[in-house]
From TrEMBL:
Homodimer. CDD domains: GST_C_Theta (cd03183). Belongs to the GST superfamily. Theta family. GO terms for cellular component: cytoplasm. It is found in: Cytoplasm. Residues 22-154 form the GST C-terminal domain. Its EC number is 2.5.1.18. GO terms for molecular function: glutathione transferase activity. It catalyses: RX + glutathione = an S-substituted glutathione + a halide anion + H(+). Keywords: Cytoplasm, Transferase. This is glutathione transferase.
């Protein structure tokens, strides 16, 4: 939950880059965290549910039309994410990683986990992912996403 992340950042006085004290940078983090619920999270989770859970629960294969529709919805918000939030910056709030980057990448790993490599044809997004993984630590990132990256095996 976003509320819990913000609480933990404040309570444990995490390094400033996670939830910046600079008001403009913090506003960028807050803006993304507010936007992502119905956009990145909403569309990424919808693809995950549609591609994996619905066929698993219903025993029916997914129609190609439905998959195409859900994928296109995600592609629209990915374009918005690149244009509005990443722009030409290394991270969402500027030159340093923040909670916004962490939340964004975690949400984007759900579609990747069901076989949709959304980074493949988006070099800006792929480069950002690499920076986020590097900042968090590649080993920790892989450990944290191990289950979701194997979701397609359900």
């Amino acid at each position: 939950s976003i509320a819990i992340l913000l609480y933990l950042a404040r309570k444990y006085k995490t390094p400033d880059h996670w939830y910046p004290s600079d008001l403009q940078k913090r506003a960028r983090v807050d803006e993304y965290l507010s936007w992502q619920h119905v956009n990145i999270r909403g569309k990424g989770s919808k693809l995950f549910l549609t591609k994996v859970l619905l066929p698993l629960l219903t025993g029916q294969p997914l129609s190609p039309e439905k998959l195409e529709s859900v994928t296109e919805e995600l592609n629209v918000v990915l374009k918005q994410f690149e244009e509005k939030f990443l722009q030409d910056k290394p991270f969402i709030a500027g030159n340093d990683i923040s909670l916004a980057d962490l939340v964004a990448l975690v949400e984007l790993m759900q579609p990747v986990g069901v076989g949709y490599n959304l980074f493949e044809e988006r070099p800006k997004l792929a480069e950002w992912r690499g920076r986020v993984e590097e900042a968090v630590g590649k080993q920790l990132f892989q450990e944290a996403h191990e289950r979701i990256l194997n979701a397609k095996n359900l």
